[in-house]
Amino acid sequence: MNRPLKLLCTAALAACAGTAAADEGWSTLNTYETITVNATPDQAWAAINRWDALQSWCPAFEKTEIVSGGTGVGSVRAITLANGPTFTEELLALDGAGMSLRYKIIDSPLPIVEYVSGMRVVSVAKGTSDIIWYSSYKRRAKDNPGPDANDEAMQKLVGGLYKACLANAKKVAEGK
């Protein structure tokens, strides 16, 4: 990754973390994944930008339902995993021209809290783009988490979801 893009993503992660006070032993975790697609930025953005259709590019989810607010900023959606659990998320920012969005989880079956995330599409070269997905969050188990709920496990869980979804977003963006 080139240095300016890395600095931009680092700044985005810091902004995503907000102004939450540090709590000793309960770190804010950050996850960052990117995938290069053989598609223009417009094609890549079209593949991922529908707030009302996460399942169209992220196969871990089978359904998206708008709970309130349409598809603009402030909208709340319920997304259902293929195996049943549902998340509720709020759209915090949507910039079509800048090809970016930001959202937060309101309610989730995952063992994480204070989750804020964003996605962005950037041009890499003619006909090639990066889709970037980043987030900050805390593990739900504040004190003495077991090995399946510690920081490393939470980052592996979120990162694994991002990688799987981005791999499918690549197929969608490339028309495969």
Model description:
By secondary structure, the chain is of the alpha+beta class. It has helices spanning 3-17, 41-48, 151-173, and strands at residues 29-37, 61-68, 76-81, 86-95, 100-107, 112-125, 128-139. A seven-stranded antiparallel beta sheet has the order 1-7-6-5-4-3-2. A hairpin with a 4-residue loop joins strand 3 (76-81) and strand 4. Helix 2 (41-48) crosses helix 3 (151-173). It is globular, with a radius of gyration of 16 Å. The relative contact order is 0.22. The model is unreliable at 1-23 (pLDDT under 50).
Please describe the structure with a list of short key phrases separated by commas or semicolons.
single chain; seven-stranded antiparallel β-sheet; alpha+beta; about 180 residues; 7 strands
